[in-house]
Amino acid sequence: MITKPNFLNLIGLVFLILLFFISSGRMILLKRQAERPGHTIIRLAHIRLQAPFKAAIDRLAADYMKLHPNVTVKQIPIPLRIWRMWVRTQLAGGTAPELIFDSVATNDELLVRHFVPLTPWVDLPNTYNKGTALEGVPWRETFLNGLNNPPTYKPDLMEVYSVPTSMSTLRLLYNVDLLETVTNSREPPTTWEAFLALCSKVEAFAQRENRVLFPMAGSDRSIPLFTRMFSRQTQRLTLAIDRDRTLERTRWKEAYLLGEWNLRSDGIKGGLKVLRRLGLHTNPGFINYRIEDQSFYFLQQRALAVPVFAQMESKDLRDLAGFAVDVMNLPDPAPDNAEFAPNTLGPNSEAGMGMGQGFNVLRGPHVDVAVDFLHYMTSRRAYQTFVEISHSIPVVIGVEPPEGLRKFMPKEKGFPPGFLIGGSGNSGTEAERLFRVNFHLLADPTGSVDSFIEALERDYGKMLLADQRNQIRSWTRNIQRNDTVLAARASLLNPGDQKKAFLLLEMQNSQELALYKSRNVRRKTGHLP
Amino acid sequence: MVKKHLQSPGFAKASRSRGQAENGGIPYSDSLPVHARIRAFFGRGCLTTLLLIVPRSSLLSNGISVEIESESLREAWKETTLFLFNDARRRFRDLRLNKHSNEPMVRLGEAVNLLNVQPKTRGNIEQARQHLESLAQDGAHDEIALMARYFIARIEQIHDSAGDPMKAATIYRRLLREQPDHWLAQQGAVKLGMLLLFESDPSVDRGPIFAEVEAFGPILTSRAARRDFHHLLGRAYLFFEASREKALAHLMAAEAEGMEDFSLRADVLVSIAELARELDRREVAIRYYEAFLEDHLRDYRSHLVALRLQDLREKVAANDH
Fold this sequence. Notes:
The complex is a heterodimer.
Chain A lengths: L3 H32 L4 E7 L4 H17 L3 E7 L2 H14 L5 E3 L6 H7 E2 L2 H4 L30 E2 L4 E2 L5 E2 L3 E5 H8 L8 H18 L4 E3 L6 H11 L1 H6 L11 H6 L8 H15 L10 H9 L3 E6 L2 H10 L4 E4 L26 E2 L2 E4 L4 H11 L2 H11 L38 H15 L5 H9 L2 H32 L3 H30 L5
Parallel strand pairs in A: 1-2, 1-3, 9-10
Antiparallel strand pairs in A: 3-13, 4-13, 5-6, 7-12, 8-10, 8-11
Chain B lengths: L33 H9 L1 H10 L4 E2 L6 E2 L3 H11 L3 H13 L5 H12 L7 H16 L4 H18 L5 H14 L4 H16 L7 H9 L8 H17 L4 H14 L4 H17 L3 H14 L6 H19 L1
Antiparallel strand pairs in B: 1-2
């Protein structure tokens, strides 16, 4: 007689055996497919788990396979959490897919060792553009950024290693129905002052109705939206310390160490006041939440608005929400706002920002097919299909954004953003950690701008020095590496290598100049003997 | 540590005519024969260097590819360009142990790869230094000896954390004095300029140091060295707030030599235009703002640049009126 536990064990065993046979069958099928004479399998690994992106890749793969019956294109979506480890393992094990999403998992050393530079292809036309306005145009010039900037162009390697597939802007997604319930209007605020007034109205409404409702739901990923408002407040300060006259925000650390600004400078205080106001109107402790948490707040109508970085996230939320949704930008303080206007030049420009999300091509026997698929993917007609299904902002010239995405299009008429003291990857690891650890003092009702400044002031200089030291180490490693490569390029005596040697010298000297400037500041401030 | 003796004058009073190799402005993509293109990159010394360090190499008739005597030697250098320093070093070492006919070049390859072999150890750096020092003393191979001296200076300057930058400065000075036309000696002038300007005692007057570095200018014939030299000085005048006029002149000279990197050139164009605007050289400012907008329209600075350009044009028009 079969007892209940035995029966369950039996089911488990049958299930395992079944799985084994399914997996084996699948493996055999894949192997046979791969071994079919003249048949090529191109695998494409990425971290975009959003349904629209996967659907877009599937569609393009199907269309491509119709054109090339001897090629199979498969996508492998990998969760971000295991992405880096997965990529490294695949590369080390020699089982890496032919196309891998360009990300921090593939640093310069890995790129050079395992991937093919696309530079030889980018100056040739994309043949899939035949019959379009881009026919005969070099592949490089079919992209809005001309492939001249990171992350597609790797300046230290002087090569193009990927082509972009979309760009990313940051906006607020809001619940239109809820907005109407609270304000009797479906129109979002257009000024900073009106936005703050709306936040107060939402809070009063929540109290009156005795429900959990915040003006905004945030997560650790929301800080960039808030710090963009901060960077408007440091625009003038950035120009004031711009000794190089590049209109860039590159000198702020050095200027801090030399005492040209401090945490109580007008622009900084203005920026912190903006951050505090935004923080107070967001769910408490949001910096410790993950992106999924903020989505739940929004979908459960416990928040009026939510920052969305990628357009696909907004598409996912739109599809899931059982209410009307629209997109807005965080508005600027009015020009006559006595508190904030003096620090700013105007809205930040978003020109050329956030373009990327390309694929690196693995060295191996299928390079030509992999590059051909990238050609197809970024050709004008196929790419139009891609952006419509994936809900992406287009990066190919002449491709129209899908309806509903126009509010995500980058605002190019604007001023260079000022520097940030934290809240972005660019501020340096140590300064960033200090900023995040103390952020609750700024965003919590019991805190204040002054208490945040006091907490930061104690260690900020030390943190900047630590970040500067790390930067110097990184520059030094690059410079050392380039010395050896220079000797090789100069010895290989062919025009391609000579051109690279010429570029290499420029890059190396420019980096060495930056290194010596930093060392000089450290010496001047007594931090270097 | 105060490095006052870095500032010692006594740098070679070489005053060779810059006109000796004015082919520096020639783009590499044109249809010149390979030797002319190499000269355009690095200046006069380069061709002879490269031909000597690759004995029995032959320039092929199509003028593009060049045959290196040994495929394994080429492979070793190829691996170096792919950052496969450990593999390349092993390959060079094997070639050396197998008594490769081009022994000096093999030793040079092994030495420069040792500088980046992982894990980085003092032992490897010392071994590289020994190889280079013996090559530097080998009079039979002057060109390789020069390269070896340059890389010894680089070890002192940047590779060895306990290195002596003063020793590097001394080597750069000697290279410039003895072979001022050589492209590596000219690169040494740029490196020496950096040491003099930035590594000297911060309390010392920068005037004489700038004068000393400025003196390198007339001897530089390689376009790469001239470009980087002017860029260095332009940035240094701004960094030390020494002279906006001189900074402007040097940055314009660097730009005229041809900045290759897209972002670096964008920065230089903006700096030139901004400095010219400050110094009320409106025509110059307008020209460089226009150049920036022509090539960098999708840069996030373009709107501000366009506003400044418009403002300047209005001022010029008002003056004309």
